Known about the structure:
The protein is mainly α.
Amino acid sequence: MTRVVLIVLFVTVILTVVALVDCALAPGREVRTLPKPLWIVIVIIFPVVGPILWFVIGRARSGRSGVAVSRPAPSSPDDDPRFLRGLDSEARVLRLEEELRRLDDEDLPSDGSDGRGPGRGDA
Length: 123
């Protein structure tokens, strides 16, 4: 019988601690029904019922109607619609072509030769 009491006590403490941490770390806009400080008090005062109430009615669940679900942050620039809207691909291509032309002009010698050096013509 002592084992059962210890297991129930252990499960109760774990449930209360998990609910308390979850409630304390939850953003204020995701807490339903009551203010967040009141939920913390309920979870502490009622060790079994408080955490169950928190998980059932106090905590906002994503995907339910009426609860705003935020999109995950883009992991790379090509996943970000704001970044993609800011790209002007035609202007970028024109800039790159102009830069390539400028680099080609710098590589060509000014004396009109093909840049292979003296005596290295086609044979």
